[in-house]
């Protein structure tokens, strides 16, 4: 046994064995990924088989956050839709097995560009291919027929921006470790500047370079992962989030995801053009969604900081975000909002 934090390895091993996926005992569990929210483990068996296991973070959680059962529903619904996702194999909430819901998925072989070190091992051509594949993957998510997939009741159909501002303002009050007046100022600015919503689509909610698995040969996106923030809303929100996470070499504040600053990766402008070409959507409101995404990222980062302070076992390999990083993201959000003409 590998003594993975957060798992009763014997009980989980027995659950997986009973699922009939062909696992050969003994199983080993290794935490993987740089995700700072739901915990992800690689499951390896004695015969060379591999799977992926997900569970919520350890310790006290905010209501409605880190819902593994909901993520399982979404991934199940997306099977066969054209959206590249892992195959879901099982879900358990049995207290005899686990203290929190567990989801087992297929292992998708590929490259996860979750650090600048990984990106440096790729050629500039491969980096560009991956970058330009991302708007196509995002377009496939936004093209899902909600009724056909059984996801039309996943979330409210009320205006998405208002829901996001209300939800994340509430999350800020519950998770902040200190006062940052600019977070509240941004919330007020965004509230005054909400664009009209003309569509209701499936929205991933956290689409960025670390949340896709890419093919080893040509760099295309072969799986989109980490669906815990998925909801129904304005598709441009996902584009804004992609831009918010997508650092460029000339940025004063590259943020925690610096891989895209390397040669070969497309610019934010190129990503925007690729998505708009793929979907035919109007980018007029994109500045609002870019600023809102940065505001939201700062709140998420503050929540990660709080969880790691309360229970260090939640800390990912890359460590927890610093207060300076969070303050810098808030400042960047305000700058984007002003340059977008929000008043």
Automatic annotation (TrEMBL):
The Aminoglycoside phosphotransferase domain, residue ranges: 29-252
Keywords: Kinase, Transferase
InterPro entries given in the database record: ACAD10-like (IPR052898), ACAD10_11_N (IPR041726), Aminoglycoside_PTrfase (IPR002575), Kinase-like_dom_sf (IPR011009)
CDD domains: ACAD10_11_N-like
Alphabetical list of SUPFAM superfamilies matching this protein: Protein kinase-like (PK-like)
Gene Ontology MF terms in the entry: kinase activity
Presence of keyword Zinc: no
Stated name of the protein: Predicted kinase, aminoglycoside phosphotransferase (APT) family
Native species: Rhodococcus maanshanensis
